[in-house]
Amino acid sequence: MAEADCIRIPYDETRFFSALVTDYLAQQPTIQPFYTYAPNSQGLAQAISARQQYPVDRVLLYATLRDQYLDCNVSEATDRNLNLLKEENTFTVCTAHQPNLMTGYLYFVYKIIHAIKLADELAKSYPGKNFVPVYYIGSEDNDLEELGTFRFRGDKYVWDGDGQKGAVGRMEPKGLKKMLESLFRNFGPPGKNCDDLRKVIEIAYLKNKTIGSATRYLVNELFGRYGLIVLDPDDARFKSAFEPVIKDELLNRKSFSVANSQIQLLGEKYKVQAHPREINLFYLSDQMRERIEFRDGRWHVLNTDITWDEQTLLFELAEHPERFSPNVILRGLYQETILPNIAFIGGGAEVAYWMQLQTLFAHHGVFYPCILLRQSVLWVTKVQQQTLAKTGLTIPELFADANSLVQQILILEHASDWKLEREQARLTDVFRDIEAKAMSIDPTLAAATRAANARVAKQISGLEQKMLRAEKRKKVVAIDRVLRIKDGLFPGGNLQERVENFMEYYLTNGIEFIDRIYQEVQPLDNQFLVINEQ
What percent of the chain has pLDDT over 70? Predict the structure, then answer.
């Protein structure tokens, strides 16, 4: 494959990643106290060795996942990986995301592919062990405004949940039919890719009972052939395995102080991503997800009349563990309690909040995994490649802001047409000679000479700006081309992966879109990946 088909750029050269993330990738001393295993092959080797000291209930894990897959087509690869979970020498590589409609953003796809590729590479490096990729659905999230919105070909689609409340993963998707009809009118070009994707989406959202199961179906159809396992943590059996942590959180409320000690230290150098509460749990029902608070000797569910004393609270937990939902502070603990996980793959914000949690994991005796930044990807279409070639710019240069790009394109094409630096320098020399001659006649004339020099310099600067504006008018086509390619690849000034949806690229490339990304991703490379469409 030609070099031009794929470009890799260090994250710290893109300007889109926080100091915490770039310091973490560089393993700077300021961030080292906040994680256990470095994001590289050595760190993974240490995590694999240490994970064996933290057993999980594999019988429960296998049985629960098998039940969750009853309504899905289980590929041969996924079936094999499900069976492997029963073995003590099997580990998971996990990524997590909420059940955004139609997957939401491109990075949803990228983080899953990253997990799959890393699991495959680890299996080659450790022939005596098995590694299984897992997508963990954040099905208990109730942010419908975020999860119910996606963009496709310039249009914004918003689902209001049809009046439903609570965890989005539990909501019924049957009201999405009208939205899907509108979406499909935007599909094309006609052909197999279009027909296949439409069929998968229709079955996912119109044949499944919940958004959570719809997401599982869609993700399984896209990635099942790679052996990906989709896990929905909103399950009473999984919650029962997490019951000791839930009980400790309700009765002792130690997470607040334990996490805060680490957060305060981290906050001295970096931006804090999430803050703990006194109780980091929600109470969950089919139409509700509300915080639990302790006051006046009782536990209360906010915005309801539900309240318990200690005896009734523990009875509720024993009878209905599925009604207790961890927030962002405890979510990772829950994940690592039910999975034999060695690595978690997340975006920049996820990496940041995991840096806050190391002491909390230690407090509960839960394994803290190797944290890896997901592969960021910029997909450049054939048309965009052609437009880019006409600008004279390179992909790395496009990461600069739009104004800088306009200046650069003008300088590239007309380096000496409008800049008056040399002329200004010559005028300065002339005025220096004038000042010397004036002072030889009358020393009091020096100030007047300098004032004249300043007036002329200001006029020259103003003339230079007028020449620049005239140059811009002359080169409006070239500048427009630069701005169009910039906005096409960085919509609204954001990374493409944080705005656009996978459907756009799947309709053009089919399953080869996913295969190409899988081929190019290097899980431990820690660089921004640019892929030119072939």
Answer: 97
DSSP E strands in 246-350: the ranges are 281-285, 288-295, 298-301, 307-308, 324-326, 341-346
Helices (H), 174-210: 177-185, 192-207
Task: Give the other-Cβ count within 10 Å of 253's Cβ.
Answer: 15
Q: Burial, 257: exposed, middle or buried (Cβ in 10 Å; 0-12, 13-18, 19+)?
A: exposed
- Mean pLDDT for the chain overall: 93
Q: Which residues contact 92 (CB under 8 A, 6 or more apart)?
A: 85, 119, 131, 132, 133, 134, 229, 339, 340, 341, 342
Compute the average pLDDT of residues 434-456. Answer: 85
| Residue in the structure block whose two tokens are 């994940």 | 335
Alpha-carbon span 526 to 427, nearest angstrom: 51
3-state helix, strand, coil in the chain (%, to 5): 55, 15, 30
Please check whether residue 369 is in contact with residue 47, taking contact to mean a CB–CB distance below 8 angstroms: yes
Tell whether the torsion through CA atoms of 184, 189, 190 and 196 is positive or negative: negative
The yes-or-no verdict on residue 380 having pLDDT over 90 is yes
pTM, full prediction: 0.88
pLDDT score at 408: 76
The DSSP secondary structure of 377-396, one letter per residue, reads EEEE-HHHHHHHHHHT--HH
Buried b (16+ CB within 10 A) or exposed e, 300-330: bbeeeebebeeeebeebbeeebbbbbbbbbb
Supply the DSSP symbol for 188.
-
Q: Tally Cβ neighbours within 10 Å of residue 67.
A: 11
Cis peptide before 189 (omega within 30 of 0): yes
For 402, the enclosing helix (H) or strand (E) is helix 402-413
Nearest-angstrom CA–CA distance, 528 and 380: 13
Residue 233's pLDDT is 98
Q: How many CB atoms lie within 10 A of CB 531?
A: 18
Average pLDDT over residues 481-496: 93
Residue 415 pLDDT greater than 60, yes or no: no
> How far apart are the C-alpha atoms of 236 and 342, rounded to whole Å?
24
pLDDT at 95 over 70: yes
Residue 351 near residue 373, CB atoms below 8 Å = yes
**Would you say 164 and 259 are in contact if contact means Cβ atoms under 8 Å apart?**
no
Q: How far is CA 75 from CA 137, 203, 209, 221, 224, in A?
A: 19, 17, 22, 9, 6
**Predicted pLDDT at 381:** 95
Count Cα neighbours of 243 within 13 Å in the Cβ-side half-sphere: 16
H or E element that contains 131: strand 130-137
Q: Residues 526, 375: contact at Cβ < 8 Å?
A: no
Beta bridge partners of 231: 136
Residue carrying the six token digits 């536990």 = 299
Cβ pair 279, 253 in contact under 8 A: yes
Residue 59 has a pLDDT of: 98
